[in-house]
Amino acid sequence: MTSTATLHPFPASVGAPVSAESSTVQIPSALQRACIAAKTAIDNKGTDVKVLDLRSLTPLFDYFVISTAASRRQVHTIVEETDAALRAVGDTRFSVTGYESSKWVVQDYGDVVVHVFDTDTRGYYNLEELWADAEVVDWEDEIE
């Protein structure tokens, strides 16, 4: 015996048709979201904020946002405020790594990856050097 079910993306009101358009959320481009993350880091006292364009270097993601925080509390604040800002524009964080140790927190938004470092850890891993072939985006000009 087999059964079939019809799945709808969201519950519909009685008698109202379900359309694909009503469940689609338009979110800003990856570049725009990377710039939002960068601005959020600056707004929360992050330093040395960079956006790297990695589209020509890897198919895995489009942009890295890299920032430095002066303390564990500041790392947490930048991470949480960045997630809130990106959720506000419709983005979803797939994962977060390193939050407990707060030396290097990585937030994965699919096409945008946000890195928040403490000072020593950023210097040690030096992602800018590792991805030296990436174009550095002038994100402040992009958000104006």
How would you summarize this macromolecular structure in one to three sentences?
The chain is of the alpha+beta class.
Task: Note the main attributes of this structure.
disordered N terminus, 5 helices, alpha+beta, 144 residues, Beta Polymerase, domain 2
Give structural notes.
The protein has 5 helices and 6 strands; from the N terminus they run αββαβββααβα. The chain has helices at 30-43, 72-88, 119-125, 127-130, 139-142; strands at 47-53, 63-69, 95-97, 104-108, 112-118, 135-137. With 144 residues, it is an alpha+beta fold. It has a 6-stranded mixed beta sheet with strand order 3-4-5-2-1-6. Helices cover 32% and strands 22% of the residues. The protein has a single domain (29-139), classed as Beta Polymerase, domain 2, CATH 3.30.460.
